[in-house]
Specification:
The chain is α/β, with parallel strands linked by helices. Strands 8, 10, 11, 13, 14, 16, 17, 19, 21, 24 and 27 form an 11-stranded parallel β-sheet that branches. It has a 10-stranded parallel β-sheet with strand order 7-9-12-15-18-20-22-25-28-30, with helices on one face. Strands 1-5-2-6 form a 4-stranded mixed β-sheet. A hairpin with a 5-residue loop joins strand 3 and strand 4.
C-alpha cells in the first residue's frame, strides 16, 4: 500500500524468468504501455490463456482457455501470468475485476481488457517457453533441474570452460567458473563454489563452499567442503577431503588424506593417509603446517598443533606437540626385528592347523 512506481507480478513456482526479460517488460512500460504481459509461443497451448493481439500488434485481451472460442484457442501465443504495470493503475484495474467467466473466478488477466476499455495501451513481451516453466510436482521439479543444468553447462562452455562430458557435470545456481577451466566427467558443484581461470577439476569430485585458484588441480575423487581455500598451483589428489582449510601456493595433498580446520603453508607436502585430528568430541581445533613442511605417510596430527616451516614428520607418527621450524618429529613405536622368527612362527601355526580335527569329523 502506498507504493509508487511499477509493480511486476511474478510466481514462486516459475523460477527461470531471466532479469533481461523483466528489464524488457519494464522498458515497454517506460515506452508507454499501461500494462505489459509476458507471453510465449507454446508447442502445446492446451489450457494456457491466449494473448489476443489487435491489428497493430498491441495486446487486446487475455482469454482463459475455458472461456475461449475455437478461433481464440487456435492462437499459439500464450500467457505466462507475469504482468507489469504502474502500481496505482494495477490496483485500480483489479478493483474492477468481476467473476464473470465459466469458472466463476477472479482473473488477474482481466486487467488487460479493463485497461483497454479505459483507453489505455497494453503490450506483450515474449520469451522462450522454457523460461516460463512452472514447478507443481516432483516431476516438474526434475524437469526444471534438467533445464537449469542444460543452461548452466551451455553458459560454462560459452564462457571458455572445457567440460569433457557436459551431461555428467552438475552445477549450482551460484557456481562461478573462470575461462580455460577444465572439468572432467561426473563432477558435482554444491552452493558457493568459485573456480579461477586455468584450474582443473578431474573426474568424480564433489565441491561445495570452496575457492580454487588459478592453476590448481583437484581430483580425481576429491571432496572440497565449505571453507576450503586453495591457492595457486595447489594439488589435491584422489580420495582427499579438505574442509575449512587454507592451502598455500604450490602445496600438495595428493592421496587419501583428511585436512580439516587447518592452515597449510606454501609448498608443503602431505603424504598419503595424513589426517588432521581436528575434533575432540566437543570442540574443533586447528592445525598449522608451515611452508615447505613434509608430512610422512599415515601421520596423525592431533590439533591444536603446529608443524613448523621446513619441518619433517616421519611416516606413521602421531603428533601431539608442536614441531619447531626445520625439526624432525618421530612418534611411533621402535621396530623390533627377530631373525628367523617369521619362518618358525609360520611353521608352528601351520602345524597347529594340521593337528586340528577337520570340521566334518566327530
Amino acid at each position: 500500500a502506498g507504493f509508487a512506481g511499477d509493480a511486476v507480478v511474478l510466481y514462486g513456482d516459475t523460477t527461470f524468468i531471466r532479469p533481461e526479460t523483466l528489464a524488457a517488460m519494464l522498458d515497454a512500460r517506460a515506452a508507454g504501455a499501461a500494462v505489459v504481459a509476458l507471453g510465449f509461443e507454446a508447442a502445446e497451448p492446451g489450457g494456457y490463456g491466449r494473448l489476443v493481439l489487435d491489428a497493430d500488434g498491441g495486446l487486446e485481451a487475455i482469454v482463459e482457455a475455458k472461456d475461449a472460442d475455437p478461433a481464440t484457442r487456435a492462437i499459439r501465443l500464450c500467457n505466462s501470468g507475469v504482468l507489469a504495470a504502474d502500481c496505482a493503475t494495477l490496483f485500480a484495474l483489479l478493483a474492477e475485476v468481476r467473476p464473470d467467466n465459466v469458472k466463476g473466478e477472479y482473473y488477474l488477466t482481466d486487467a488487460v481488457g479493463l485497461a483497454r476499455a479505459r483507453g489505455l495501451t497494453a503490450a506483450v513481451i515474449t520469451c522462450p517457453e522454457a523460461e516460463t516453466l512452472g514447478v507443481n510436482s516432483r516431476a516438474d521439479l526434475a524437469a526444471a533441474e534438467a533445464a537449469f543444468q542444460s543452461r548452466a553447462r551451455a553458459e560454462a562452455l560459452e564462457n571458455g570452460a572445457t567440460l569433457t562430458d557436459p551431461a555428467s557435470v552438475w552445477f549450482a545456481l551460484d557456481t562461478h567458473v573462470g575461462r580455460d577451466v577444465v572439468i572432467g566427467p561426473c563432477v558435482v558443484f554444491g552452493p558457493g563454489v568459485t573456480i579461477e581461470s586455468g584450474a582443473t577439476i578431474q573426474a568424480f569430485c564433489h565441491l561445495e563452499g570452496c575457492h580454487i585458484s588459478r592453476g590448481a588441480v583437484v581430483g580425481p575423487f576429491a571432496r572440497l567442503r565449505p571453507g576450503a581455500e586453495l591457492a595457486e598451483d595447489v594439488r589435491v589428489g584422489n580420495f582427499v577431503e579438505v574442509k575449512n582449510a587454507i592451502v598455500g601456493e604450490g602445496a600438495k595433498i595428493n592421496h587419501l588424506a583428511y585436512v580439516g580446520d587447518a592452515d597449510v603453508g606454501a609448498r608443503a607436502n602431505l603424504g598419503a593417509g595424513t589426517i588432521t585430528c581436528n575434533y575432540d568430541g566437543v570442540f574443533k581445533h586447528r592445525t598449522e603446517i608451515g611452508a615447505g613442511a613434509f608430512i610422512g605417510s599415515n601421520a596423525a596430527l592431533v590439533a591444536p598443533v603446529r608443524i613448523g616451516a621446513q619441518a619433517l614428520v616421519g611416516a606413521g607418527s602421531t603428533i601431539t606437540e608442536d614441531v619447531p621450524d626445520g625439526a624432525l618429529a618421530l612418534a611411533r613405536g621402535r621396530q623390533a626385528t627377530r631373525p628367523g622368527l617369521g619362518v618358525r612362527l609360520m611353521e608352528r601355526l601351520r602345524a597347529l592347523k594340521t593337528a586340528r580335527p577337520s570340521k566334518g569329523a566327530h
